[in-house]
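To illustrate the input format used throughout this study, we show a single complete record. The first block contains the structure-token representation of the backbone; no residue identities are included at this stage. The design step must infer an amino acid for every position from geometry alone.
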């Protein structure tokens, strides 16, 4: 589709909130459109697990569909059911559920359930027998990640799957796997996993099965490894405009833009003398008479505690750094002696680097983590303000 480019919207403010998350649905739509373009002829399954990496499950799902995603994916079965409850009818894949999960409910809701172990398949077959109707499943092979999926007994699993298909208990709609080192495209495991995947699919075919949609690529592989696109790609992080390979390129380098902006309001601005210790444990001490600002966000809101004395923010166009420890609900910044900042001023915690603001990647580096974790942990208690949404999804 030809998506109009919306200029970055000014952060709208929920009345009275100390801090909030602004989600640019137009950015999600455009990022997906870019991924669709890069993946073609493969289709795009937009991963919206973990509340769409903190962006809001339903908002992101709808924007991704407008952008051209033909599938949605979530880790947990309950997230998939939540999408159906919200009226999202697109093809939908889930891959994590415990024994006794509501597989029948998932099947009734038209959710494709991943089977990546013998017990998964047995549970699905039992549900299908009870319903007298096949359950749509996708088979997951562990090609070397060493996490979910069938690792050593793919042949036995293939045979069991063939029996289940023959019995009419399951309809195999896809076969998939996941990379260990997609963010290092030259790593030898990447090629080895692709080869193993092709072999696993061939084994299904030799057993007379149609593997359905074959998919392997996350964001990093979607952006850097066209050989891994197969029939469908499964980007998550890139949907939200973040780079899965920050050493290889920025979001802008890949034609993406950050969809999340986090803003707080200064709730206190006060003079402090030189030598004043700041926040718990006094891990920061003012080196001159200065002005301190209180930012009403803390680790309960998703500000990494590891970003004490390191996390970046922007106030009135100027960068500042967290002063001392991050607390549960607040942290301090040293605004400098000449500041004109005042209570109520907006503090940009993270946003689009293009505007000179700190980014999720900056916070990741400050806290010794990855950008995924920074956005995903923005807490439910922060109000979400959606801009750029379209009603036709
Ligand atoms: C989270 C996840 C993805 C998306 O990964 P990104 O690196 O965010 O693109 C794809 N597939 C599976 C199985 C996942 O768990």
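Output of the design step:
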């Amino acid at each position: 589709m030809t998506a109009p480019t919306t200029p970055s919207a000014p952060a709208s403010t929920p009345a009275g909130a100390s801090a909030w998350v602004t989600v640019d649905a137009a950015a999600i739509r455009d990022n997906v459109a870019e991924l669709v373009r890069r993946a073609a002829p493969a289709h795009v399954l937009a991963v919206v697990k973990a509340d769409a990496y903190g962006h809001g499950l339903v908002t992101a799902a709808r924007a991704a569909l407008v952008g051209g995603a033909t599938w949605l994916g979530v880790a947990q079965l309950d997230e998939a059911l939540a999408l159906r409850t919200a009226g999202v009818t697109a093809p939908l894949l889930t891959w994590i559920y415990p024994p006794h999960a509501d597989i029948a409910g998932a099947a009734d809701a038209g959710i494709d359930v991943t089977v990546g172990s013998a017990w998964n398949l047995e549970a699905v077959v039992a549900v299908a027998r009870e319903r007298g109707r096949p359950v749509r499943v996708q088979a997951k092979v562990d090609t070397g990640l060493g996490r979910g999926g069938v690792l050593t007994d793919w042949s036995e699993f293939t045979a069991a799957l063939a029996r289940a298909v023959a019995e009419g208990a399951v309809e195999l709609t896809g076969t998939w796997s996941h990379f260990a080192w997609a963010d290092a495209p030259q790593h030898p495991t990447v090629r080895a996993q692709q080869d193993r995947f092709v072999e696993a699919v061939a084994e299904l075919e030799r057993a007379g099965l149609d593997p359905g949609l074959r998919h392997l690529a996350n964001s990093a592989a979607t952006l850097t490894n066209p050989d891994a696109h197969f029939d469908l790609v499964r980007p998550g992080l890139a949907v939200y405009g973040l780079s899965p390979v920050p050493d290889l390129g920025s979001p802008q380098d890949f034609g993406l833009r950050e969809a999340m902006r986090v803003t707080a309001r200064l709730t206190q601005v006060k003079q402090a003398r030189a030598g004043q210790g700041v926040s718990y444990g006094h891990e920061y001490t003012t080196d001159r008479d200065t002005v301190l600002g209180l930012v009403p966000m803390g680790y309960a809101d998703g500000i990494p505690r590891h970003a004490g004395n390191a996390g970046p923010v922007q106030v009135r166009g100027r960068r500042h750094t967290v002063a001392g420890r991050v607390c549960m609900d607040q942290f301090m910044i040293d605004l400098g002696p000449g500041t004109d900042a005042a209570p109520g001023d907006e503090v940009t915690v993270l946003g689009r680097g293009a505007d000179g603001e700190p980014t999720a990647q900056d916070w990741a580096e400050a806290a010794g983590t990855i950008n995924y974790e920074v956005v995903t942990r923005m807490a439910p208690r922060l109000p979400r303000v959606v801009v750029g949404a379209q009603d036709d999804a």
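Structural context for interpreting the output: Confidence is low (pLDDT under 50) at residues 1-11. The pocket of pyridoxal-5'-phosphate is lined by residues 47, 49, 75, 95, 178, 218-219, 234-237, 244 (CB under 6 Å).
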